[in-house]
Specification:
single chain, 363 residues, mainly alpha, 17 helices, 69% helix, globular
Length: 363
Amino acid sequence: MKDLQNNHIESRQIAFVAAFLLPASKLLQTPSMLAKFAKGDLLLPAFLHFLLQAGVVFILLFVASSSKKTLFERINERLGRGAFLFYLLLSFYYLFAAILPLLDLEKFIYAAFFDTAPTVFTFAFFFILSAFICTKGIKGIGRSADLCLFLFLLPFLSLLGMSLQSADFSRLLPLFETQFGHTMSAFTHTTPHFSDAVLLLPLIGNLRYKKGDGTKIMIGYGAGAISTVLFLAVFFSVYASLAPREHYAFSKIAQYFPALRTVGRVDLIFIYLLTIVLLFFTCLPLQFATELTCQTFHVQQKTIFSAILNFGLFWFVLYCNKYYNAFYAFISGKAFFLFWLFTALALLLLLLLPNPKKETNHA
């Protein structure tokens, strides 16, 4: 497999993906699922997820820093023609990982922005946008990440600030006293929403590492984790025992802010901006799948492939949205191990990479 086209990305942009796009993905169903399965103590499983994922990201960055070549260049050299199978499996993984975000985004948009039932083709506009974005390669992801610096920070902090008046943080107490079984149940059921390291793999894999890059990316991931934990704390402090039933809570968490009675629902402006970030995130695994598949099979017409992929996904979502609960129960309750499996596969592959000292001596 050749190197990915349009693959130049800066460490700053990967840090922005970790700090802004990944936290946005956890604003929809994740808070209510954590509250449901953890029996209220939703912070502990979130901490466990972030510690695990941060460890994997650190290992990826450590290995990337050990050579002047990118991770994908070294994988290609080590596996040779066998790299074909790795990239093909990774493409299928990203398509599988895109199922819940796609179904979540559709449900959220219908619930948050439509007072009456929309037509069945309303969500088609997302796939038109996605088909365009999927042709832009890794470089396009970097540009989206730069844009999300402005689209995420102000709306997110504004919604948090507006909801603080309704929050009672004593509802979080006592911390970390839930039964271990409940914590692990929440941990496993939310694994699809916290598989961040594998999502960052194509970005780190195309990064030509320079001094300080790892620090930037780890700070970005840490900032994203803090943002998520803050939102989870405010979310449960506002809704308490109602939290398991409050899906897509970020779209209504600020509605009790007193000033809104005078000026109207200005919080909707912030919700619209965060929805744009969600659109970029939902396209992320589809971009990876498109790029990896086209390069693996030497597809020259990426635009045509992207159009076919998104057309197929549109019909998949159109047909399968009626089975939304069944898909959630299967992927989060039974197939969650696939996300761990691919994380383990990525780490195992790093162990097979050639020793950078041998690369230097050979050169």
